[in-house]
Structures are given as structure tokens and as C-alpha cells.
Amino acid sequence: MRSDGRRSFLNHRWWGVLLLALFPTVLCAYSPESPEVEAMVQKGAGFLKSYAAHSRAGGQALIALALLKAGEEESHPRVQGGVNAARNLGKTTPSNVHDNAYDVGMSLILLCELDPEANREPIQNLLQYFLETQKPGGGWGYAGRNTGDNSMTQYGALGLWLSQRSGFEVPIPTVERLCNWILRCQDPSGGWGYQGVDPGPGNFQRVPQSDMRPTMVCAALGSLYMGSDLLNITERRKQDVEEKSPSLPGFVREVKTPDAVERAKILTKAVDAGRVTASKNAGRSNLAATFTISPSQWDFYYLYALERYESFRELDLGKKDPQPPWYDAGVNHLRSTQSDSGSWRGKNEEPIVATAFAILFLKRSTAQSIKKRSRVFDEGRLVGGRGLPKVVEDATIKNGQVINKSELLESDKFLSMIEADDAELERFLHQDVKFELSEDERGRSEQIVQLRRKIRDGSFGARLLAIRAVRQSKDFESIPVLIYALTDPDGRVAIESRDALRFITRKFNGFGMPRGADVTQRSLYANQWKQWYRSVRPDAEFLD
Predict the structure, then answer these.
(1) Distance (Å, rounded) from C-alpha 465 to C-alpha 426?
(2) What CATH number is associated with residue 118?
(3) Whose CA is closest to 133, among 109, 155, 162?
(4) Do residue 116 and residue 6 come from a single domain?
(5) Nearest CA to 435 among 417, 459, 453, 422?
(6) Are residue 327 and residue 426 in the same domain, yes or no?
(7) Geometric angle at alpha carbon 320, from 314 and 324, rounded to 5°
(8) pTM confidence score
(9) Residues 74, 199 within the same domain
(10) At what angle do helices 235-242 and 299-317 cross, to 10 degrees?
């Protein structure tokens, strides 16, 4: 185990050293919020809005996704055009024609990002396309060919991941076949080619691949990280199982909730976890050795594949890199190549497609998607178990188990403070507090009823923290009181309730409601939530 971890560390260090050597200006340390980045994004978005619509459904979906990530409203005609094209493609399960895996994949990605609940039927049909057209080996590719295609497969893999994380059923055997195909089609050098050369089921002896390039390495690696995440074969899972703090006494152990125990399980026996880890390490070493920020072909398509792979690698490790050198290199490259019109021109991609890919890279679009679906802790750990506190002095011991005092507020203390509208509640408003509700079903139900009441008539601090506790409980039956809180006199409470509604319903874009909306405007958004909730709970009753 130690040797694998050391190789991973060395690969990561070499990756950073290589980028710094090739691109010394990466010391700028950009982020998607940097003024220079935002200026490029808005200029590019202006070009997308002014350019003629793309002829293919996938192209229209790509442009709509880029505009949404750039902050454009869903109501914009160009966004609506992409959404309508995706919905039309998903009216039934699409036919398998030539290379329409690209169109189906981008349409599926867009609708999952936009509103999985409102687009349930087309999403299910688009997902069904990938379930039906998977090649016998495990990848996806051109209709009429038996070979899997790493380029198309990456969009199928992201579609599967987003669908599953949005509440749709993705069969484990589908993901197993995907992962094993990628493992079998890896070159001895650690890279991947365009059309996979597959030695056949069960044969993991690496054979030479053809047409290998960084674009395909990023595509295949990204697909492997997505598939292995769905199967729970990740580095963060291994850390949750094996990691112990050297600063804690041996008799102390970490709290493990039932959910955390479940997350520690690998969901398959058909994919070898050690082989997956070795493949990831070899792939990353190959990419470090061949890295360029501007490959000889499909350069903007590559940037999106690079961002997607790196984002899923962060998820795999359970750590977000705050200053990734590859991102800074990409930003500098895009700053030097954007035209006066706001567009970028690729070596193979037309300007409208290249510009959409550039925006998705600049906005860290995949990282945004992951963040919506995987909670990021303050220290950069992603979901995969609570983890030990960074500072041991912040820990206390309960029944021989480690509890982080800054994270866990026990139910008795919390509920008594809520009930009394205790002024001390306000000191928890700016902390990442976890609420320990009863594990007994009846006791938990009674506590949630108490929280709902305080959302209606508690003090500011009680209302805000009660909403957070209900959000954490994922109690679907509390939606009416959360809708009621959208019209709370205090806008901060209304925003907290909006975010809780989005989280519980998995409608991550909700119905809008910007910060600063007045009570009259918020009432309109509340009515939209009521209409949606009546569509799934026809007998619902609301508070007025």
C-alpha cells in the first residue's frame, strides 16, 4: 500500500514540476473567479449568443451548457434552443446512427445539469440509449463497428455518472464492462488510443494501442475515474478504511455512521481495485511525460477532457487542489489566443464549438457539477466518510470514538437551544455544524416536527439552523415548510431555504430566486415550488 501511495505522490509532484518548467507563468494562480478569467468567459459567451445556431443537437446542447456555466439565464433563446434540442432527442430512445453518441451524450449531460426532475422522461430515454448501445467489450463507438471509441465513451461515462448521481438507475454490470474495457485497452506505455485494441474479456495483458495522443489519455482516464467512482473504487475510500491519525491514542477510533460504513464498500467483485489503481497511476505518468496545453489536433475538445479528468481525479483523492498548475497553463494559453470577437478557433473545431469548450474549461464546469453532488469539507476533503479533524485539539471522545467538536452538535443540546431561541445559537451560524438527530425513527420524526415548527416561528438563529438541520436530514416531507420559508421576512433565511429545497429535491438549479429578491418576488418563486411539489404530491397542503 505504501509503495502505491508513494508512486502517486511522485507522479503528482512530477506533474507540477513539469508544468512549471514548461509554463513558468503559471505562478499567476488563476481561479474561475479571477477577473481575467471572468472577462474571457463573458466575452466568449457574448460570441456564443451572437453566432448562428449549431446544426446538431449535441452542438446546441454543448453551447447551452457553456452559457449556463457562464451564468446565463435558462430563458435565453440560445439556451432554450439547446434545451429543446436535447428534449426532442430524448422524446424516445434515440436510434443508434453513425456517431450520434456525441449528440446523445451532450444532451444527457445538459438535462442532468439543468433539472433532472423536470426532465425525467428525456433523461431516462437518453440514458437508455447508452444502456442499449454499449459495445460487447464495454465501450461506446460508431454504429456498425465492434470497437469501442475512447472519444465517444467519455461522454457516455459522464452521462452515466450524472444520471446516477441525479437519482436514475445505472446498472452496475454496465459500469463494470466500461471499466474493464478501459483497463484492457491500455497501452504498455500507460496511454490509450482512439479506437481501443481489445485483447478480449479477461485478458488484462497490455497490448500496443494505435493513434495515441494526450486527448485520448485524458478521455480514457476520465472515463475510468468516473466509472470507478460509481463502483466506489477510489483513493478516498481506501483512506477512510485504512487511514489513522498518528496523533491520536490507539484506543480511540473514528465515529462511523451507517452511511459512512456503506460508503467504505466496493460495489463490485468483477473489477479488480488494485488493477484500477495501477492503471490510473500508469495513465497519469504517461500524461505527465507527453503533456502539452495545445495538442496538434482537437485542442479545445482536449481542454474540456483535461478539466473533466482532473476534476474526477480530485474527487477520487478526496482533495481539491486550490491552485492546479494545469489550469493556470490553460488560462494563459486561452488569454493569448482569444480573438477580438470573443471566440477561439480550434485546429479542428469550428469557432462556436471551440469557444464553448474553452468556457467549460475556464469555469471548471466538471468541478462545479461534482461540487453539487459531493459535499466539500473546509479542509478540502470530499464526501467519503467524515474523516478525522485536522487539529486534534478540536476533537473530543464520546464512547471511545473521536468527535470533532466544531462539526457535531448533539440533538439534546441543539434542540433545547432551538426551543428556547437561545442567543448562543448565533455563534453557530458561520460554522460548518453537523446536527446529530436521533437514530430512532420515531424520535427522529418528533425532532423533525419540532424543527419545522421553529422554521415557522423561531428566532432568526433558530429558523436558520433549523433549516440547515432539515436539509441535512433530507426530509422530503418538510418541503412545504421550506417553501413557506422562501417568504421569510429575513432574506438570509429565504436563501437558506432555497438551497435546502434544491438539495433535498436534487433540483440543483431550482426555479431561480436570486439573492436580494424582495418578498413579492420570492412569493412567485414559492408558487413555482408549490406547483412542482403538487405534481409529485397531489394531496399536498401548504402553509399560508
Answers:
(1) 9
(2) 1.50.10.10
(3) 155
(4) yes
(5) 417
(6) no
(7) 90
(8) 0.68
(9) yes
(10) 10
Residues 317 and 397 reside in one and the same domain: no
How many domains are there within the chain? 2
- 308 within 8 A of 154, measured Cβ to Cβ: yes
Tens-digit pLDDT profile for residues 425-454: 666 666 656 666 776 677 778 888 888 988
Residues 120 and 169 in one domain: yes
The domain of 402 spans 393-536
Task: Give one DSSP letter per residue of 98-125, joined into a string.
Answer: TTTHHHHHHHHHHHHHH-TTTTHHHHHH
CB 185 within 8 A of CB 221: no
- Residue that has been written with the C-alpha cell 451532450 in this structure: 106
* pLDDT (tens digit per residue) in 278-313: 999 999 999 999 999 999 999 999 999 999 999 999
**Count of other CB atoms within 10 angstroms of residue 473:** 17
Q: What's the length of the chain?
A: 544
Instruction: Dump pLDDT digits (tens) for 480-501.
Output: 999 999 998 888 899 999 999 9
- Domain boundary residue, one of 340, 373, 406: 373
CA–CA dist 464, 461 (Å, integer): 5
Instruction: Tell me the H-state helices in 291-392.
Output: 299-317, 325-337, 351-362, 365-373
Q: What is the Cα–Cα distance from 299 to 295, expressed in whole angstroms?
A: 5
Asked whether residue 417 falls in the same domain as residue 460, the answer is: yes
Domain assignment of residue 542, yes or no: no
Cα dihedral angle (60, 61, 67, 73), rounded to 10 degrees? 100
